[in-house]
Design brief:
Largest interface: A-B, 74 and 74 residues
Strand order of the largest sheet of chain A: 4-3-5
Number of domains of chain A: 1
Strand content of chain B: under 5%
Radius of gyration of chain B: 46 Å
Oligomer: heterodimer
Shape of chain A: globular
Distance between the termini of chain B: 74 Å
Order of helices and strands of chain A: HHHEEHHHHHHHHHHHHEEHHHHEHH
Number of strands of chain A: 5
Number of helices of chain B: 38
Strand order of the largest sheet of chain B: 1-2
Shape of chain B: elongated
Number of domains of chain B: 4
Helix content of chain A: over 70%
Radius of gyration of chain A: 22 Å
């Protein structure tokens, strides 16, 4: 043992208690891989489901009981603070419902939403054979757990490298998950390919930006970067370029315009439960990190990055809502809606005040709640060849199954931010933070965008309730309790958060301080 | 107050059930419901008139300062009376308007009552958010009510238009509210009004709030939605478009006027909008032949008038505005309901076809005439009283030497003339008119009770008129509050809302207006011609449709242009943004002139140029193989640069990696077409080229700036010292790999194992064949890599004979050689392979052990073994590969990983830290003094992993692909099989 080493490298202090949710999920992911390897095919689904739900719920319990104990751990690489814990718990809870959607196997006569065997050629004899044997891609579950684990790490990462690693742990499984739809497989594979290629670019920008930030500050730790910035005498090209590149990487993840192009294609191509996962959890994680990086590391440069964020926010809100107007596919429309929400969330990032943090947390919760339900309902409306996603097929749905259409209407109203739904509370707090943060013009654009958005949401509602159903229209399939519970909880919470948001807001406000 | 709203809401919830059992008669019962708040308000009249303000406050969302706060003051009190009183009449009237067979009656009843509830909430709310909430609810319910006749397309579109316009305005107002709330720090309306905040942000907020108010009350430029909304059933029009919803905007203006009338944009905005609205409305009303549309435009005109008076900002004007509001609510609902009766009785609302109603329905006719008199402001109706007060309040401003009071007065006067004219036209057209008389209709008289509301309200207008013989005291509370809020409590309000002021100028003007109106009516044919000549060049409705179409069009175009599903397009967009934003920042960067050494030896730029040429050529190449080879050139170029910079170890590794990847590419390419897919030459190609080049330049620039801007010392400066003192080696790269960054290497080799497994599992689609087939296990024909038909039989024969001759000698250079198709054997290659294989293995072991101090190391050594195996495979085919290393690749990988991990763990036991090296000196016979660094064992693990990876790739991309191609060749004779999973690009 050499003294030199001892003085340079000390054993990192790791607060296992604070990290336990991450460790539980990643540990379960590893076990899940082993399950794939050793458990007979017939039992895998059940074993995986038990494992996944057990892991998620344990992690939730640990995260909730541990909430409030803030810590910077892992040699400063991880900051388990209020926003981090809040987002972790949100991701975990949303993941439970996403997992429920994924576990659904009663909607499609052939099984769940995932292909029988991912490496059989679409339309081939192989594929038919495996489908007939009733195989399913249970590999989904380890991928799902790894992705969730990555997200949990992502939102508490306190240095750029951990951020990058977590980003990849989160993203790579998603690329695969997008590729394994049971129906319209080529579309699904194409979507995954696009997602992967463009995602790789996004990651590359992020990494490039990290390298430059390191080159500037001599540290990858967010807090150190902030210190280096505050010690800066004049403008410095390196750090500005670093901020720009890092932002691009994160804009890509949250699908802000003009880095949104992948989103509609991927949302449509991926299996709907996976789309729900991407639209909800990835957005939570992405925005959470954007918030942390901008607030903790780069708040000193606000004058430099704010104009960029103003533009991106405005363009995202307007372009996404306007593009959503012409969509004829319900999943595509939801995709654009999801993009536009990124724009609204950016308002809170721009605000750069404690309300900004709290309102982001609130917005993310209500948005994710509604998103899971909306995609869940999309899986229910089916024609002979799978989900019926063309808008015209939804005509008169309210007359056929008022319950489902009513639930969907509530979720859409929430997306539109109509009062008495959760979406209103989200928009209200975000707009409030934006005004307090001096971004009134962006808020006004946000209101205009909300109006346009309300138009296309209401159009769907009108279509469902005020037009006659088509003769050979799709049917609403009765799901298993999995999807049923997920959708009901989503709708009920959307209403409850709309009427009694007090606890949610209090929690978010309590959690709204980053530590560095 | 909450109780009143709850009662009506509950009634709305049970209304469908009632309608279900009682049919339309349920409306008779439901009509009682709005009477409850009406009576409640009446019972409070003493308190209100004494100036009391009733408040109720239930906290709701504390963090947002959002409470269910209500306030009943003078203004709200009057609004409640209007909303609930007329609401009751309208609900009552529904019984006669609808039949049991009417569609959707159940939901209609519910929506109507829900609308009453939200309207009550709106006027009572004392919290901005609550106000907004009810505001939006009235929008939603009005949408449902207007679109009630959902089957008709025009009805749906009208509903949509009303919804769009009012929601848009509502959202603008919402932002205005937010700004107000954030600025004042409270959402409570009375608090905000008391605070009277000022500032540029407040001005913005007020502007936004006014947009909301104007849109809701159908004021210019949002007036166009109201006529379209006439598609609604008549009770809806009578209620929403006369008494309730359109008054919401006016109410808001009235509510805010005391505190904000002196904000600079307040008066001009409202007065200009009001004047334009009142004139457009009156003008258009004279053009209509549909009774309902005539009333709709009349309503627009009246709303404009009311707005003007709340815009003026004096208490007298505001009170006059309120009087106008009351008068309008009374007479306009009456008239709307009469139109509904006429519609039902005759089946038309066209004044050119109606006649003789007077005789058929006298009660209705009397009511209509009285209401029309009130509309035209004829003494002694309340309409007259209100207009007198209004004229008077404007006239009081004349002395200010400003121009606007006079201009406004002119507008109001003209509006009064127009109103008188269209009131006459309305009554005459509906009751006795025979202008044109195109196919006059038959009248089927309606029940007397259905005419009652019209008559009642008509009479009520007169009663109110006579009531005003004494000053109309019900407006006093609002006036007092107005003065209070303006900080003018001392000023005494003098109520001018009186029937008779004496024969003064104002009265004269009123008379003149009436007379002029009558003249206009008398000359209506000429006036109609005049109107026909002056057709409107642009209409607000047209603009609205234009905007809507424009947005749709834009959306379609943008979707078509950007969202084609084309990956190159998506990528180009992203790259362009990166070029524009970080690129611009880059150009502005102050770090352009740092210490940058361009090159140290002339060979560097030389190699650089070659690499650039190779890279360009690779991008231009159409043959896959050529592209890969050129890519290889750039790789070797990097190796040369490494070598020049004094990093022979890196260079060695780089060369090996390049070689191996080249070979792998070639293997994989056997399954792909020789050329890249053929794309037509398009201009977009050059655009893409441009984007690519500029992006490359940007990134190069970023790198340059990054290097120039470096301030900290590189961490690697210390590596040389540590590598020797701690790591015990002179080859820094190797020490970094196995010691300083051993954890990274650990991760990398784990990744290598995963990648090797991944490649193998992609190629071995169906099975992971664990059985190693060696040449000696093989029976049967020699056919590996057979060329089938390409060689003539005679040549093949001679080759076969030659080979057999050499095999017969009894000496085999490579055993696998015998398994090859005869034409594929090369004795020279076999001999050379035989000669160099073992040498290469020895060399690799040397590299492995020497690596710590000299170029080499486990990674490079493993690659050398890989190349050796590759040579064996190329010379002797897949069976030779099995012969060379008859072990499952997975095992080698596993063992390698195990050794690596094991050495790390062992180090932990030994030194207390994972992967901590220890330097051990000892003497061995023959070798002499030995300096053993324990990280060597880790390096051995790396070595084995690399060997395993190479073997795995050779066996999958090489041998297994051979088998698959042979199988497919037998099946179909097709030499270009469809790829596995990755389809070929043609």
């Amino acid at each position: 043992m050499n003294e030199l080493i001892a003085s340079v490298f000390e054993t990192p202090v790791i607060n296992y208690r604070q990290l336990s949710p991450i460790l539980i999920i990643l540990g379960a992911a590893v076990i899940s891989v082993l399950v794939e390897a050793f458990v007979p095919r017939a039992n895998r689904r059940v074993v995986q489901l038990v494992l996944v739900f057990l892991a998620l719920i344990t992690a939730i319990i640990w995260a909730v009981t541990g909430a409030g104990q803030q810590a910077i751990t892992g040699e400063g690489a991880i900051a388990v603070d209020g926003p981090g814990t809040f987002l972790q718990i949100t991701i975990l809870i949303v993941s439970v419902f996403v997992a429920m959607l994924m576990a659904e196997n009663r909607l499609d006569p052939a099984g769940d939403a995932f292909t029988a065997r991912a490496n059989s050629l679409p339309g081939s004899e192989d594929e038919r054979e495996y489908t007939n044997r009733g195989w399913t891609t249970t590999e989904l579950w380890p991928l799902f757990l790894f992705s969730v684990g990555g997200m949990l790490l992502f939102v508490v990462a306190n240095d750029l490298l951990i951020l990058f690693v977590a980003l990849e742990v989160m993203s790579l499984p998603l690329y695969l998950m997008a590729a394994i739809a049971r129906r319209r497989r080529l579309l699904s594979q194409e979507a995954a390919m696009k997602y992967f290629l463009l995602g790789a670019f996004g990651s590359a920008f992020f990494l490039y930006g990290s390298a430059m930030a390191y080159g500037f500050a001599g540290s990858i730790r967010l807090g150190d970067i902030a210190n280096a910035i505050s010690a800066l005498p004049g403008p410095n090209g390196l750090i500005i370029a670093a901020v720009a590149l890092l932002s691009v990487g994160m804009f890509f993840k949250i699908a802000a315009v003009p880095f949104h192009m992948w989103a509609p294609d991927v949302y449509v191509g991926a299996p709907s439960p996976v789309t729900a996962f991407m639209a909800s959890c990835v957005k939570i994680a992405g925005v959470g990190v954007l918030l942390r990086v901008m607030y903790v590391a780069f708040s000193g440069l606000a004058w430099d990055w704010r104009p960029l964020f103003w533009i991106v926010s405005i363009v995202t809100m307007l372009v996404a809502t306007i593009l959503a107007l012409t969509q004829t596919d319900i999943k595509r429309m939801l995709a654009y809606s999801s993009i536009s929400h990124a724009g609204f969330l950016l308002i809170a990032v721009i605000a750069l005040n404690p309300q900004g943090i709290a309102s982001t947390l609130i917005y993310l919760v209500v948005y994710a709640t509604a998103t899971v339900g909306a995609f869940g309902i999309v899986t229910l409306v089916r024609g002979p060849s799978g989900e019926a996603t063309h808008l015209s097929q939804w005509a008169g749905l309210g007359k056929r199954s008022p319950l489902v259409a009513g639930g969907f209407a509530i979720l859409l109203l929430s997306f539109a931010g109509i009062p008495l739904t959760a979406g209103f509370i989200g928009k209200f707090t975000v707009f409030g933070a934006g005004i307090a943060g001096g971004a009134t013009p962006v808020v006004i654009v946000g209101a205009v965008a909300s109006m346009i958005a309300a138009f296309f949401y209401v159009r769907v509602i009108v279509l469902m309730f005020f037009t006659d159903p088509a003769e050979d229209g799709p049917t609403v399939v009765t799901p298993s309790p999995f999807t049923g519970i997920a959708i009901s909880v989503s709708v009920i919470l959307t209403v409850i958060f709309g009427i009694f948001p007090q606890p949610l807001i209090e929690l978010a406000e309590k959690a709204s301080i980053f530590i560095r | 107050m909450l109780a009143q709203i709850v009662i009506v809401t509950v009634a709305a919830l049970i209304a469908p059930t009632l309608v279900r059992f009682l049919g339309r008669r349920a409306f008779l019962l439901l009509a009682i419901v709005p009477l409850i708040p009406f009576i409640w308000a009446l019972s409070l009249s003493d308190e209100i008139l004494e100036g009391e303000i009733l408040q109720q406050n239930i906290p709701w969302i504390e963090s947002l300062d959002f409470s269910i706060a209500f306030e009943l003051d003078g203004l709200a009190w009057i609004m409640v009376l209007i909303v609930s009183g007329i609401g009751a009449l309208v609900v009552f009237y529904c019984n006669y308007y609808f039949t049991d067979a009417s569609r959707g009656l159940r939901s209609f009843a519910a929506y109507l009552l829900a609308f009453v509830a939200s309207m009550l909430g709106l006027v009572l709310a004392n919290d901005l958010l609550l106000l907004f909430l009810f505001w939006e609810l009235t929008t939603v319910f009005s949408y449902l009510l207007i679109g009630h006749n959902a089957e008709s397309k025009s009805s749906r579109r009208a509903a949509m238009k009303a919804l769009m316009v009012t929601t848009a305005g509502g959202l603008a107002m919402f932002v205005g509210f937010l700004i107000l709330g954030v600025q004042v720090g409270s959402m409570e309306i009375s608090v905000i009004l008391d605070a009277e905040p000022r500032g540029s942000l407040i001005t913005v907020a007020i502007a936004l709030v006014l947009i909301g108010a104007l849109s809701k009350s159908a004021l210019f430029p949002f007036h166009f939605w109201l006529p379209s909304a006439m598609a609604a059933p008549t009770p809806v029009s009578a209620y929403l478009h006369a008494a309730a919803m359109v008054k919401a905007g006016i109410y808001l203006i009235a509510r805010f006027a005391p505190a904000f009338a002196d904000v600079e944009i307040w008066r001009p905005t409202i007065i200009i909008a009001g004047c334009i609205t009142t004139l457009i409305g009156g003008w258009q009303a004279l053009k209509q032949t549909d009774l309902k549309l005539m009333l709709a435009y009349g309503t627009i005109s009246q709303l404009g008038l009311m707005a003007i008076f709340f815009g003026v900002g004096t208490v007298e004007a505001a009170v006059a505005g309120l009087a106008l509001l009351i008068a309008h609510a009374v007479f306009k609902s009456s008239l709307f309901m009469s139109v509904g009766v006429i519609d039902r009785a005759t089946g038309t609302r066209d004044i050119r076809r109606l006649h003789g109603l007077w005789n058929a329905m006298p009660l209705l006719s009397i009511g209509m005439v009285l209401s029309a008199l009130s509309m035209a402001a004829v003494i002694p109706t309340f309409g007259f009283v209100a207009k007198e007060a209004a004229f008077g309040s404007l006239a009081a401003e004349w002395g200010n030497s400003a121009l606007w009071p006079i201009l406004t007065f002119v507008a109001v006067f003209v509006s009064a003339v127009l109103t008188a004219a269209y009131a006459l036209r309305f009554v005459y057209g509906a009751l006795s008119g025979s202008d044109g008389a195109a196919s006059p209709v038959r009248v089927r008289p309606r029940p007397l009770l259905s005419q009652a509301p019209t008559a009642f309200l008509g009479l009520f207008g007169v009663v109110l008129g006579f009531w005003s013989i004494k000053p109309f005291i019900f407006l006093d509370p609002y006036a007092d509050e107005f003065l209070d809020q303006q900080g003018n409590a001392a000023a005494q309000f003098h109520n001018e809302v009186i029937l008779w002021h004496g024969f003064n100028l104002i009265f004269t003007l009123s008379l003149v207006a009436l007379v002029l109106g009558a003249v206009m009516f008398w000359q209506r044919k000429r006036f109609a011609k005049l109107q026909a000549m002056l057709h409107q060049p642009i209409s607000a409705d047209g603009i609205y449709h234009g905007i809507m179409r424009g947005i749709d069009r834009f959306a379609v175009e943008v979707t078509g242009a950007t969202q084609r599903g084309s990956l190159p397009l998506y990528l180009s967009t992203i790259l362009i943004v990166v070029i524009v934003i970080p690129g611009t920042l880059l150009i502005l960067s102050p770090n352009w002139f740092g210490n940058f050494v361009w090159f140290e030896s002339p060979l560097q730029p030389f190699v650089g140029v070659i690499m650039i040429i190779a890279a360009i050529a690779a991008a231009r190449s159409r043959r896959r193989l050529r592209a890969v080879a050129l890519l290889g050139v750039t790789g070797y170029g990097v190796a040369i640069l490494f070598a020049f910079n004094g990093a022979p170890d890196l260079a060695l590794t780089q060369v090996l990696v390049e070689t191996v990847s080249l070979v792998f590419f070639v293997f994989a390419m056997r399954r792909l077409p020789t050329h890249f897919s053929n794309r037509p030459l398009r201009r977009s190609r050059f655009l893409r080229l441009l984007v690519g080049v500029v992006f490359g330049a940007t990134m190069a620039g970023v790198t340059y700036v990054a290097i120039s801007a470096r301030t900290a010392n590189p961490i690697s400066d210390d590596f040389a010292k540590w590598a020797y003192e701690v790591g015990g080696g002179k080859n820094i790269v190797n020490v970094i790999l196995v010691d300083i960054r051993a954890w990274d290497t650990m991760g990398e080799i784990s990744f290598l194992v995963a990648a090797a497994t991944g490649v193998a599992s992609l190629v071995f689609i169906k099975r992971r064949n664990a059985r190693i087939v060696r040449p000696t296990d093989l029976e049967g024909p020699k056919q590996v890599w057979g060329l089938d038909d390409t060689m003539t039989l005679s040549v093949r024969q001679s080759v076969v004979e030659g080979n057999e001759a050499s095999d017969r000698e009894g000496f085999t250079w490579l055993r696998g050689g015998a398994t090859l198709a005869p034409e594929r054997r090369s004795i020279i290659f076999e001999v050379v392979t035989r000669l160099i294989f073992h040498t290469m293995i020895i060399f690799s072991i040397y590299l492995l052990f020497a690596g710590h101090n000299r170029p080499g190391g486990g990674f490079a050594a493993g690659l050398v073994v890989g190349v050796a195996l590759l040579v064996r495979y190329l010379a002797g085919g897949r069976y030779e590969l099995a012969e060379a290393l008859p072990i499952d690749a997975g095992r080698i990988l596993g063992i390698g990983l195990m050794i690596a991990v094991g050495s790390g763990i062992a180090a932990m036991f030994y030194t207390g830290t994972m992967f901590q090296s220890e330097i051990i000196h000892f003497t061995w016979p023959v070798f002499g003094e030995v300096k053993l660094v324990t990280s060597l064992f880790f390096d051995i693990g790396v070595y084995l992993v690399v060997v395993g990876l190479m073997l795995d790739v050779l066996r999958s991309l090489g041998a297994e692909l051979d088998i698959q191609m042979e199988d497919e060749g037998e099946d179909s004779g097709d030499s270009v099989p469809v790829g596995s999973g990755v389809s070929s690009e043609s």
